[in-house]
Amino acid sequence: MSPFTSVVAGVIAFAVTLAIYTFTINRLVRRKLRLSLFLLAAYAILHLVLLSAPALESSTAEDIRDFARLGLSAAIINLLVVALLNPLRADRIPDRFPSIVQDAFVIGTFLLVATFLGDKFLATSAVGAVVLGFALQDTLGNAFAGLAIQSEKPFNIGHWITVGGLEGRVAEVTWRATKLRTKTGNFVIVPNSEVGKAPITNYSEPAAPMRLFVDVGVAYDAAPNHVKAVIKDAIANCPLILEAPAPDAMIHDFADSAITYRVRFWIADFELDEEAADQVRSSIYYAFRRHNIEIPYPIQIEISKELPVDNPEARIADREELLASVGLFAPLSAAERATIAGRMQFSEYGDGETIVREGEPGQSMFVVKSGRVKVLLEESRREVATLGRGGYFGEMSMLTGSARAASVVAHGDAKVLEIDAEVFRQLAEVNPLAVEQVGVAAASRRAELNDVRASTRTAAVVEAPNNFLTRMRKFLRI
């Protein structure tokens, strides 16, 4: 290559490199092009040396020209590899040509080109290779391990892995190390030689789903089959848990103070494993509270502190006060409300748990004791109401035995009191007129719900008040 041709090639290479560096949004491309810019700058400096010192010996000048041509060749090769193998308008690393493979292309091509510069360079490079080989044993070990990782591909960029006890998403594989981004947002840099030696767990391959488990201890007096049924029902509505494969529960161990159950479930994204486990544990906790299933814990006796004593009279009085604030029960006397208060069943639900589901059978109603619940129409997924303390739902099912007219889910932690239809049957035997007045109020509220259904094009056939009262009398045997 003549000096003039070499200079023209250098100018063109510099212009193209600078243009790509300026306009690309790919951070990997920008980082790799810095090498080309550096080599082109070195090439320009060497040419300035030749121009400023024309009296140099011919052998020295020729050596400088050889090194200048080497730098120019390396800059152009690096530019071509980076520009051809990477997306310039997207900030990502190509799966087929990760950074370390691109570097191997550059080095291999450069060595082929360098052989055309003659025996002098080959002899110099051989001596340099021996010296560098001893000086860079660890670095070369990491480099070869990195090439082995790319050829075997035990993981790809974006995979969640555990290697050497470290867990994270693979962000980049370079000559020296594999970079992991942990769930806490930190970068962990693991030398490739360590990656090559350590066992690797890849959570992203084979393809999702992946199975996780949590263990929960239950008191020995709870029947195992009942506990398993409660657990499976509790986690059925967890948003992150897959329906298929279905979750299950099994006895894992008979511990000193509890039977340990292992709850196994499947998720689609390992990144959300902690959130999924939290949903499972929370749902199980609230379900156990509702079914009076005890989770044992170490018991300590504190002599200086008295344990709280349950006060049934205060509890009933609070429920009577709550019922008195509910307009639906206004036709009832204080004594009748006291009867209902004594028969109410307490339940507690966590955020997002379904209390009743539209279309399911039921013969009870609920009054919100604390917290809030949302009333939803399943077909349109429209939220029609948010109820707080004193709010009620399910009265149609309690009075007529009809299926649930809407779904109700907890909005945050919610405590509710359930009233069974049998309580109202007994009241109807004593005061049928008051119970019918409750039915009239319930029919009015049902009409309001039908109006909402009509506005969302999900309206069912509207039932006339007389027909409703007839069904109520028949169901309650008035």
Summarize the model shown.
With 478 residues, the chain is α+β, with helices and mostly antiparallel strands. It is built from 15 helices and 16 strands. The chain folds into four domains: 133 residues; 49 residues, Roll (SH3 type barrels); 81 residues, Alpha-Beta Plaits (2-Layer Sandwich); 165 residues, Jelly Rolls (Sandwich).
Fold and architecture overview:
With 478 residues, the chain is of the alpha+beta class. It has four domains: 3-135; 154-202, SH3 type barrels; 210-290, Alpha-Beta Plaits (2-Layer Sandwich); 312-476, Jelly Rolls (Sandwich), CATH 2.60.120.10. The protein is 49% helix and 19% strand. The chain has 15 helices and 16 strands. The strands form four sheets. Strands 4-3-2-1-5 form a five-stranded antiparallel beta sheet. Strands 9-16-11-14 form a four-stranded antiparallel beta sheet. Strand 12 and strand 13 form a beta hairpin. Helix 3 runs antiparallel to helix 4 (99-114), helix 8 packs across helix 9 (273-290) and helix 13 crosses helix 14 (432-455). The longest helix is centred in the first third of the chain and has 28 residues, at 58-85. The radius of gyration is 37 Å and the shape is elongated. 24% of the residues are buried.
